[in-house]
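Kindly review this protein for my students:
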Amino acid sequence: MKVDTYNQKGEVSGSAVLPKEIFQVPMNADLVHQVLISQTANHRQVSAHTQTRGEVRGGGKKPWRQKGTGRARHGSTRSPIWKGGGVSGGPRNDKNYTKDVPTKMRRKALFMVLSEKAKNNLLVVLDSMEIDSLKTKVMASLIKKLPVKDASRLVVSLNNDKKVYLASRNIKKTGVSEARNLNIVDLLNYKYVLVTKEGIKNIEETFLK
């Protein structure tokens, strides 16, 4: 697949051939959904935790005798029906939500999403992304010149390139990811993808080993 490339002035400066192994993979919505669910589940932070009746303090003594009081029988104030008692069926922080998906499936789903971005002209390829200053306004000015309108965009930086990350992280509707950390969650959260020719090579080196 051949696409236009842009310079840092937002002008079309040439073209680039995208590797078909990454950018011409037919879409399989079921596979993409499966990988998306697994990745979001693996990033889930389980912090809510309730105590069962066996973990709540107190309640060792029977509240009142079994018969003769006219009240319902109870064996412990730690019962879930008592105020201050244990919780039945509440959230637990020892629950494991992780879902394992084979590496080949994850990579295939990533290529499918990248292929859809390229197919729908949502992939913007730059000749280079050289940031002289780490100021946010420099990167924001560069993005405004590119054909991404006012939509959200994901900036794919070169591996170990901290300059682009520091200059882009505070821009509204903008996400940043190194080429080696690219995943479908980030790709689906943003409409456009900004990447350089060198960034495409980084993606090839990382995912086509």
Summary: The first strand starts at residue 2 and ends at 6.
